[in-house]
Amino acid sequence: MAFDKHASPDTKQYHIQVARGEVGRYVFLPGDPFRTDLIASFLEDAKLIAHNREHKTWTGTLCGEKVSVTSTGMGCPSTAIAVEELIKAGADTFIRIGTAGPVRDSSDCERYDGVIVTAAVRDEGTTTHYIPIEYPAVADRHVVEALSRAALAKKLNYAEGISQSKDSFYGEIDPDCSPVSGLLKERWRAWQRGNVMCSEMECAALFIVSSIRGKRAGAIMNWGDMNETIQTACDAVRLLIGQDKANSEQGG
């Protein structure tokens, strides 16, 4: 199938292979296609919609509302593609669910269950193709609040803070392998001194694309316990569904 930028919104999107009506307005975004299966198990009546390249999509329900999960693949380029095409298919609220490494201090893994990301350092190249680097990559405050409330209700200790979104996994875990190791280490120390909480590879693209398209996005990252994180994200979406219904009734 050839790419057609003028294709109807009802046409299946080129990369994720879903059409309008096949996904809900609320979408969970893991990086790993195989993790979509686990997340889908927390939805009601989940059905596999499409799997093309790194993008695998399930759709089910929460609180009677259609909710989907689509994998982004690793990194900002494929994340931006997935979010762009999900928006064209009708989605408007995104929660990234993933794992991250601590930046500020390795003891964060012991003190916290993970991080609810409020903003992202744009230490990657994709988002500069959207808007100048001075534009901040910020999560939607309502999504952040819903995630925080959901975590608190479960008595989980998620920090709220900034993530570093990078392009090179090995630049983080083995900077000495790079000819610019000195620069990488210097920048890492800057993130630590600036109280950046964690490091991952997708939040910046998610926040930038969502912001400039007028959509909502947030992210919840953990150090390893994925089930608790998924449950927290699902509870956050339940809160958002309730708030959105109340706002709609008041507006009507």
From TrEMBL:
A GO molecular-function descriptor: uridine phosphorylase activity
The keyword Phosphoprotein appears for this protein: no
Catalytic activity: uridine + phosphate = alpha-D-ribose 1-phosphate + uracil
Provenance organism: Ruthenibacterium lactatiformans
Keywords: Glycosyltransferase, Transferase
Domain Nucleoside phosphorylase, residue spans: 26-225
InterPro entries noted in UniProt: Nucleoside_phosphorylase_CS (IPR018016), Nucleoside_phosphorylase_d (IPR000845), Nucleoside_phosphorylase_sf (IPR035994)
Protein name: Uridine phosphorylase
